[in-house]
Amino acid sequence: MTSKDSHKNFSLMRERILAEQNGGPQYWRSLEELADTPEFREFVEREYPQHAEEWHDPLGRRNFIKLMGASLALAGLSSCVYQPPEKIVPYVDQPEEMVPGKPLFFATAMPLGGVATPLLVKSNEGRPTKVEGNPDHPNNRGADVNIKGTSATDLFAQASILTLYDPDRSQTLTYREEIRPWPAFVADIHTALEEQRKTQGAGLRILTETVSSPTLAAQLRAILTEFPAAKWHQYEPAGRSGAHGGAMAAFGEPVNTVYRFDQAERILAIDSDFLNCGPGNLRHARDFISMRRVTEERKAMNRLYVVESTPTNTGAMADHRLSVRPSEVEPTARAIAAALGGAGVSVKLAAGGAGAGANAQWVNAVARDLQQNAGRCIVIAGDEQPASVHALAHAMNEALGNVGKTVFYTEPIEARPEDHTASLRDLVNDIDGGRVGLLVILGGNPAYTTPADLKLDQARLDKKEMLRVHLSLYKDETSELCHWHVPEAHYLEAWSDARTYDGTVSIIQPLIAPLYGGRSAHELLAVFSDESDRTGYNIVRDFWLGQMGAGGQGAGQNQGQTQPTAGSQATNQTQNAGGQASLNFANKPILTAPITNATTDTELAWRKALHDGFIPNTAARPRDGLSVRAPGEGGASPAPAPQPAAGGFEIVFRTDPSIYDGRFANNGWLQELPKPINKLTWDNAALLSPATARQLGVTQKIGTHGGDVHVDTVTVEYDGRAVVAPVWITPGQPDNVVTVHLGYGRTRSGRAGTGIGFDAYKIRTADSPWSGAGAKVTRTGEQYSLATSQLHHMMENRDPVRSQPLAEYLKEPENPKEGTEHGLTHGESSYDESMYPKWDYQQRDYAWGMAIDVSSCVGCNACVVACQSENNIPIVGKEQVQRSREMHWLRIDSYFKGDEDNPEGPYFQPVPCMHCEQAPCEPVCPVHATVHSAEGLNDMVYNRCVGTRYCSNNCPYKVRHFNFLLYQDWTTPTYQLMRNPEVSVRSRGVMEKCTYCVQRIQWGKIEAEKEGRKVADGEIVTACQAVCPTEAIIFGNINDPNSRVSKMKAERRNYSLLPDLNTQPRTTYLAALKNPNDEMKKA
Amino acid sequence: MPQIFHHSTNFLARLSLFGAIFIILGALWVAAAIHRSSWGTGAFVEREQPVQFSHKHHSGDDGIDCRYCHTTVETSASAGMPSTQICMNCHSQIWADSPYLAPVRESYKTGKPIEWTRVHDLPDFVYFNHSIHVSKGVGCSTCHGKVNEMPLMYQASSLQMEWCLTCHRNPERYVREQKDIFRMDWEPPANQPEVGPQIVKQNKSPDTHVLTSCSTCHR
User: What's the pTM?
Assistant: First the structure.
């Protein structure tokens, strides 16, 4: 029994020792670990990095003991508290379907950047408590309708529940900071409108974010019809101007591109973080991983090439990653296009492709691989890339024959596609010219997010008299500059609609009445019409009843035509959208085919749409037969971006991975979420490569607490403007490139978001919003302390993450029972004997276990937020994170591989509780607060815990978290509404950890047992599993050999963390696989 | 100076040292007894309610089924408290003018719910589910006592974990057949040692190891 396993463990140990002799670890989490500095060694060897320092004050120790004695004596008294009497408040008239104790789920959608994520939101007695993806939505399902769809969401949707209950949200309608009633606002607007009517609204300007909502578009259209001289502008700091410009250049119309990654064997991402950002990222990630998952049935993988100017999650997943300066992205793309030409695929617009230069081998190998997989590959350009790169990507896809196979074009999903920068510039010109009398800002925070050269700041706005109205969730920087501030209703409080990435319309239905009396954009715009008191429900419903009635008839004429092409004329007219008051924006039926018939009237169709969470037949109409217009064919191919002078710094702007463009700045869950690559929390930083940092002489040093990293600050100067930023040395960052993330440095956000980080908008310009040359980075000599979880919970180079190239993995091992040379172990769980008694699960129906595929994890962080939401996990704040005291039950460790300048990865490894069979935490608890359950769970009993923390000290995986202080907010009433009633809210002095969502296990078991059956595989999903877009986390019954988790554990890639400790974890991992191109290897 | 205490008082000092052990043990015993008493557990204490509702009258005299008011006892964790509407089903016709029912009529008229005082109050870290107990053969009266004989509702058991575990460790002593679940007069029959295990088996109840795992009730 012992022999097999001992052999494996010894071979692992030998490998580790050899690796150390051969110069450093193979996988590393931080540069300090790679360099193995003395500070790092000291940090690792310090026994309890998260604990308080030793008491140095000589008198303090005695006082401390006295106080402790007194507390101990008094502690007994605390148990003498009786439960206060409780009230039961039943309904007066209990609503139908409402069963106390049983949650209801309602379909809705969260709009972000104009694109909806379809959701199913859990409601406990009328309180929305948890957000899940809508598995019935066509975007979330595969071709097979019998297979249940995914309930994945992104991290923003998960965290939106906290924003809903945020007590810092704006709560009152104000005029110049004075509280006013709604009728006063309506009267004031009507007076202003009467003034505007004289000039046909020449002074009326409406500024929105991206609008895809058909109802809002119809309202805007009505207003612009009534006030023909008025203008509607759209500005979004992360607007997709490049994609829009690229489509205009390539096709002459603003088509929407839909990618089918489940059909693509080869993918070239040109500075595109398609797995994590942008419309459809959930679908992209799912489809991408479905072609990457190696199983017994499918022994092939897709291959991902990434050219990028700053490390992203997509770059981490790449099989071949080329890190280039932002100015080199376009030349590299052109070189690939040219090389495709050399390989016999003639690409339009490829002119200007210079020699591939230093990367010739990379470029040629990619081109050859794409050409060999023509029709089964995708070239995707990032939203941050200029129009010319997007046009080139369209041309490459066309030349490779991907269009119609992996790449599809549809009509745009935005109500009026346009270049946001141009639209903003137009508005700013009008403001500067004094032509604006009434400015209505619906959502967004332009005073903060506008580029520095087009800033809507006080100086600009106050120049001429103009009435300003701002609708927003928070009283923010823009509200400060507006006369009227109208509190906005959260999307979970208001009626609306929005379109997903492929155009399918979801009705956004509220789960709760506005907590703070907010109004939706629809209700605000109603004030501009004759019926100023129309409710959001009536506005949205009437619009759709009209569409369903009319859409049915209109679309009926198209029956028989499988590809309706009608309406392209209208689309063409939308081109000049950015400019003059345009009434031409899409005003045609949204429905492509009728959804009403003899048995289904519009009312029934509306109800079904509400129930299902989407309106069928609303996907954007396909645009077939498009052809990329070469410069000679009337196409206005944008010239390649000018090449910056050699030398000097280049700057890259990105939205923040956690708080996006700054709108989520007051969301504590997102602020404390360690960012995917560098694990920073509560701050943004200027990312520099290790070589550049050495050149500048900037350093980062670990502090004494483990989470505090003291870094130098630098002045980042760009285009005559400067900000001071702390430095973060980022492996994989191109040299002489500084990356700054937007969204921080808010001056008016709320308790969590105000005054942290630096504001990168201050140096952003309208002409080059995403990157630019000629930046200057200089050391200030000051230091700053960042909070990062990069170094927390180290497992000290004991093969926590393992990877292998596909080809090596597919080679059958000589002895399938033995571990392979790369430390990949086999599914059979053979462990050494233990001195503790063995648990026997054969008598039980269930033995719960989890398998996590490192190969599938894209590091999107949604699971961490989902866990936080499901399990009532508090946030602790920056200072406590610096002491390694963050409470996340699930963390994602990221491991780089290779050298620091051009590392592979990072590999993302989600680490929940391992639920060890021989759990080291259990025997050391003096009060039996952590015990083994009969089904193999490692139970944590909060009410027994006295807080000795022995369990945490003895846990080799460091997955236990202690409430050092009262982190949970017990007093704010709205947060009490938010909590999951199925999970205890923990107090100070209690240890907590992942429970495998035991509340969901019990729920599933009870429901199954009431029906007299066993729990089916896949019936119980943990919160992290439910939200995972790539199905990297699988939970289930390992007693059942046919369950999905058992099958995963039976795979050859299966391994456990720190197996030599013989803890026999229930959570095991599947080693990462990469699919490198042999041609590149030769170099 | 002479000694203040006589030599014989040393005996008292020794006695008190020896006796301290008994005093401490005694104090602990008293504390435990208080903790377990109805003074500590709240058992057998009749609670003041906004309406003087009598289970004895409704359940005992009128023979109304438990589920007429506690509608969700078979489907949900919560047994469900009757909405004012349910009270008014009958009381719009009978006792329609009774002064005792004024709060009910008031609630019905104003839409403001009646606030009952909770009688069975488990700590918030205990997740009790009515529906699974009912479906596994645990009848109402096993925990709630003979409700049909209670003019004012009181808690008939200690509701301490020790009490829960007596059944979770040996469910066969307490379970009954499905037809008897809502019977208030059910007592374990003489042949309970034979039928009990059969019912447990028939209901496919989890074994006692599962029933006594912490996470079964605490989350």
Answer: 0.90
